[in-house]
Amino acid sequence: MSMRVLAVLAACLLLAACNKVTQENYAKLQSGMTKAEVEKLLGEAAECSSALGISSCTWGTEQSFISVQYAGDKVMMFSGKGLK
After folding, report:
1. How many other CB atoms are there within 10 angstroms of residue 60's CB atom?
2. Which residues pair with residue 74 across a beta bridge?
3. What is the distance between the alpha carbons of residues 23 and 19, in angstroms, rounded to a whole number?
């Protein structure tokens, strides 16, 4: 096996081990948390959008994700799907 293939496999294993989109982390979310607190827990969001002072950020994939809605800088509500 070439070094390049080994490096790619190692990177994939590290990324899978660092997955923060889990039921355990979802249970730590609370209304009123700041965006910085959520990012400390889940890392940088995969996608965010905002309108009229409300923003929504998502972590994970279409099959397994955590979605957080903010009013200003505070968590208003959150949801998850496919968490393990």
Report:
1. 21
2. 34, 71
3. 11
Query: Which pair of tokens denotes residue 38?
Result: 């959520």
Cβ neighbour number for residue 35 with a 10 Å cutoff: 17
Strand order in the sheet with 65-71: 47-51, 54-60, 65-71, 74-81
For 2-26, the pLDDT digits (tens) are 667 655 555 444 444 468 999 999 9
Which runs of consecutive H residues, i.e. helices, occur in 1-61?
Answer: 3-17, 23-28, 35-42
C-alpha separations of 8 from 2, 5, 17 in Å: 10, 5, 14
